[in-house]
Design goal:
Shape: elongated
Distance between the termini: 18 Å
Strand order of the largest sheet: 1-2-3
CATH class: Mainly Alpha
Mean pLDDT: 96
Low-confidence stretches: none
Number of helices: 8
Order of helices and strands: HEEEHHHHHHH
Structural class: mainly alpha
Length: about 150
């Protein structure tokens, strides 16, 4: 079972906190709040910044989307054993938050390793990715969570 409060704080920390002014993320995308990608329809609304409260509201919306995306991603994996379920869900939820469901679905070998309960292979697949190369510190942190299953 996921400790929602702890996981949310970990994501906020990995994203660099609640940023009140628009900034470019590591890939050059306009971002605000807790890693919220600014949509074209939001550019005008957020151009002068946001309040901390708005940043948290955006985060909770994005978090709920990531949670749904994590469930979608893990659905073909069947029942992950109880001892590993919380860790796997946390890792996949944070990955979904960071890269979105479209990119997460490209992690086919990772998902297969999860379905096979092959935690070592899942970790290898995390490492063998563009995501790992782009954000190695965050990736290593999530891989360390997965290592608890070995």
């Amino acid at each position: 079972m996921i400790d929602e409060g702890r996981l949310q704080q970990e994501i906020i920390d990995h994203e660099g906190g609640v940023v009140l002014k628009p900034y470019k993320d590591h890939l050059g995308y306009d971002t605000i709040g807790v890693g919220h990608l600014i949509k074209d329809s939001e550019k005008h609304e957020f151009r002068n910044g946001i309040t901390y409260e708005t940043g948290l509201k955006l985060f909770l919306i994005d978090y709920s989307i990531a949670k749904r995306d994590m469930q979608t991603f893990l659905k073909p994996c069947g029942d992950i054993p109880e001892y590993g379920r919380g860790i796997v869900e946390e890792v996949c939820l944070e990955m979904a938050f960071q890269i979105g469901i479209t990119k997460l679905l490209l992690f086919k070998k990772f998902r297969k390793a999860l379905a096979d309960e092959n935690w070592s292979e899942a970790i290898e697949q995390m490492k063998d990715s563009r995501w790992y190369n782009q954000t190695p510190n965050r990736a290593k942190s999530l891989m360390d969570k997965m290592k608890k299953l070995i």
